[in-house]
Write a sequence for this structure.
């Protein structure tokens, strides 16, 4: 590329090298094809190292030995021998072609070797954390407290995590960046305002309040409310709802079918015992479907009284009364559909990737990621557009 200077001379500009980001990722079976936090790696155009299941008799022998010898399971959740191999592959990849930054997408569950061998990684290390604080307290208060200096930026997905991580790492190295959602794949359709029966949807299992959920469904059934509930749950949870005439059960359905159920529902019913970010909440909002949940953990970061209804932890009867109101006046639920979609647009992956790139650039330059996020938030942004609901 060339530009013409004030004196008329042509000057050749060197092309700007894109930032080289190396991401360590993993997926869970319950994530939809377009969902999950690993989508972030694609949005920032990162090179990916992913946990894969190793095969062969030698690997099986090494796996058994690792399980017998390793104590990482005492402070790491869902960390396996294959996670160890993935960390080794990432270290090897970083030696072959040095990245500008390494981002471990699940610092709670796949970050161990990189901390213990931090000197082998010659670039900044960013890690995202998803679990509630009580799940990582023992690890960072005692077992790996001495290794936290190796993390250049900790990204939390809910504000309820900030205080503790700032205490462990210092406020300059901890930033809140929400979980993202594919707002093109998960999107609204025209809602059938002529339908009189209220439809609710239940999706997922992580940190759900199953006792409250069953009691809500049971009470709606007992009162013979004009409500149909679609429960998208794993096989082991089906017995909780199989006796209720107002509930249809779905297991391992396609993403297309799940999106259709979101789009047709009047609200998502998702009582939780605890939470940080929640994929189900984001998917529902993106489809223009408001959310009924609890004001616990990170849920208020994603749901407010414009796009849903939040109740105290364990609440049952107030939620049943709300559903009863829906049945008598469906407009109560329908009136929040547009706001639900607008709220989801705040969490589009394009927007989240912008924030993450600001953090990468800051740590690559030795600057404060917290200050970089403050600058990003204060910069003028294009108004978020939302397709009509």
């Amino acid at each position: 590329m060339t530009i013409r200077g004030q004196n008329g001379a042509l000057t050749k500009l060197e092309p700007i090298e894109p930032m080289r980001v190396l991401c360590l990722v993993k997926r869970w079976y319950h994530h939809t094809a377009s969902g999950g936090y690993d989508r972030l790696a694609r949005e920032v155009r990162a090179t990916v190292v992913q946990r894969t299941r190793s095969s062969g008799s030698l690997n099986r022998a090494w796996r058994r030995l690792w399980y017998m010898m390793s104590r990482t399971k005492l402070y790491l959740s869902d960390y396996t021998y294959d996670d160890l191999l993935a960390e080794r592959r990432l270290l090897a990849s970083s030696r072959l072609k040095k990245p500008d930054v390494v981002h471990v997408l699940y610092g709670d569950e796949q970050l161990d070797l990189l901390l213990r061998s931090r000197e082998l990684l010659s670039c900044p290390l960013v890690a995202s954390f998803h679990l509630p604080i009580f799940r990582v307290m023992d690890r960072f208060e005692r077992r790996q407290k001495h290794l936290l200096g190796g993390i250049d930026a900790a990204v939390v997905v809910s504000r309820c995590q900030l205080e503790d991580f700032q205490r462990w790492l210092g406020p300059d190295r901890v930033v809140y960046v929400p979980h993202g959602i594919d707002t093109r794949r998960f999107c609204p359709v025209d809602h059938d305002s002529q339908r009189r029966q209220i439809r609710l949807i239940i999706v997922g299992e992580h940190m759900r309040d199953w006792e409250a959920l069953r009691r809500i469904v049971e009470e709606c059934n007992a009162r013979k409310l004009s409500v149909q509930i679609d429960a998208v749950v794993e096989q082991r949870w089906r017995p909780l709802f199989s006796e209720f005439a107002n509930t249809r059960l779905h297991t391992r359905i396609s993403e297309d079918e799940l999106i259709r159920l979101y789009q047709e529902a009047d609200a998502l019913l998702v009582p939780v015992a605890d939470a940080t970010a929640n994929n189900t909440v984001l998917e529902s909002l993106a489809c223009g479907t408001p959310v009924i949940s609890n004001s616990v953990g990170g849920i208020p970061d994603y749901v407010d009284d414009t796009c849903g209804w939040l109740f105290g932890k364990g609440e049952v009867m107030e939620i049943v009364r709300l559903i009863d109101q829906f049945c008598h006046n469906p407009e109560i639920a329908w009136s929040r559909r547009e706001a639900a979609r607008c709220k989801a647009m705040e969490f589009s992956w394009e927007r989240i990737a912008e924030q993450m790139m600001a953090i990468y650039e800051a740590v690559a330059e030795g600057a404060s990621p917290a200050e970089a996020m403050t600058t990003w938030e204060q910069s003028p942004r294009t108004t978020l557009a939302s397709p009509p609901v």
Q: What stands out?
A: The chain has a mean pLDDT of 90.
